Amino acid sequence: MAESPLCTDPGGDLSPEQHPTAPRHGYRGQERDCANRRPWETGIRAALERNASDQRRALEGAGTRWSGTTGRLVTAPGQYRRPWCLAPWSGVCRHVVSDSPRRAGPMAHIAFFILPAAGHVNPTLSVARELVARGHRVTYALSENYRERVLATGAEFLPYALDQDRFWDTMVPKQDAAEYTDQQEFVNMMTWMLDLTRQTLGDFERHFGGGDGDGRPDVFVCDPSSFWSGHILAAKWGVPVIRSTPTYVANEHWSLHPPVDTAEEQAEDPRTGALFEAVAELLAEHRVEKSIGDFAAEVHSGPALVYLPRAFQYAGDTFDEEVRFVGPCTSANSFHGEWEPPGTGRPLVLISLGTLYNKQPDFFRACVEAFRDTDWDVVVTHAGGVAEGELGDVPPHIRVYDFAPQGAVLAHASLMINHGGTSTVLQAVSEGVPVIAVPQMAELHATATRAEQLGVGAKVLRKDVTPERLRETALALTGSAEVRAAVARLRGEIEAAGGPAAAADAVEALLVPAAAAAA
Question: Which of 12, 38, 359, 497 falls 20 to 30 Å from 439 in CA-CA distance?
Fold first, then answer.
């Protein structure tokens, strides 16, 4: 897929000199030169309006009406609506040319409500880019620090205020354990979700539901780990929801989390009881006629995008086709500039603890010592977690960065040492790279264990990290034919999963035209 920047020329009067690159539009298979709109506008617009007219006639009797000001089809309340948009004349044109097949029918509006953490946002960006390329309107509700990443996909951006300090303190698990057992962490997380839902829900409802309601999304893509505004609006408006899950899903056969307490046990914990009462009051206030148990079940069930191959999911064969294991979707996303490989021909190891568990100078010092006297090239990215000078004397074959473009480095790597982040581990394997995972909390322990079970890596507990242990494990993994074969097998599973195109297909599968629904 090729992209160029957004065009903000609503009138089409810019000269070729003002558009020296002459970007091309890709709408419904039509390619148009932004610098020369006027000569072709009349003919193309007439063709699109004829198409829209055909769509209107096809939906007669299905409760639809035509909004001439927005160029959209709008249904009566409670009925499914799928809008048509004459995008080139809306004031903002997205220049996206995609190799993906166009879907028949009018453009839909798809809204993403994602937890404002890089590991949750980044896998969705390639999916949004694919949906935009297919002609859909995409809107993200996210905190301000993700604006540039979202706009780069061609999606619209709807920001909300976020207390970053509270978010990190509340939503990042602190327990270095293989199981979630801290009840206070659960209460803190649920309280944050409730507070942010209360803060944002009114603004989001006005934004999407204002006027004649033609801004309402046709599908909500909701992260089950995030706050509940998207789910509540979807329930109020009868709009389908698909989960966006960058890590494991659960069912009756396997779950990363312990079972929810019974009502009797909740009553014995006043903190949990008060929290659940507040959530129930919020649902009632917004006329969501569901118990908190039913609402919670809906948040964690139904259609899902899971950014893993099915083979990596625990009990993966027990999930039905409603759960779409599309594999990692992060490789096309790069936000950290260019990187030049050393060009020595030596093995290279990439070392990263992500952005949440990166403040560990002792760990990074152990990595430096592990590879100090080897013939390896080393790239260390600490995401700002290490102050200047904290690593001591670093030899020249070890290069230390705040950030580096992970995909570019992995394309040249022989090994990755990381924190066990699911997306990170799978991105490494998708480049044919085995991993040493040093997990920091329950989800990361599960990923490190799964990588070890499938033979694509090794798990080293944080308490066991020493330069000697890291070096020995690195040599064992990179020298093993069995590991190379296992990585190749899982890499094949990742490629077969389909990535962003398969994810976009799953979203589009929820778009059932009103006429078909009424039949």
Answer: 497
493: buried, middle or exposed (CB in 10 Å: 19+, 13-18, 0-12)? buried
The tens digit of pLDDT for each residue in 278-290 reads: 999 999 999 898 8
Question: What are the φ/ψ torsions at residue 212 (nearest 5 degrees)?
Answer: -90, 10
Radius of gyration of the chain (CA): 25
Q: Residue 106 carries which DSSP code?
A: -
| β-strand partners of 243 | 222, 304
Which residue carries 């600490």 as its tokens? 382
What pLDDT, in 10s, does the model give residues 478-511? Answer: 999 999 999 999 999 999 999 999 999 999 999 9
What counts of helices (H) and strands (E) characterise the chain?
17, 19
Structure tokens at 10: 């609503």
pTM of the prediction? 0.75
Asked whether 430 and 328 are in contact (CB, 8 A), the reply is yes
**Residues ≥6 apart with Cβ < 8 Å to 496:** 309, 327
For residues 306 and 249, is the Cβ–Cβ distance under 8 A? yes
What per-residue confidence (pLDDT) applies to 388? 80
Angle between helices 361-371 and 467-478 (to 10 degrees): 60
Q: Kind of pairing, strands 72-75 and 64-67?
A: antiparallel
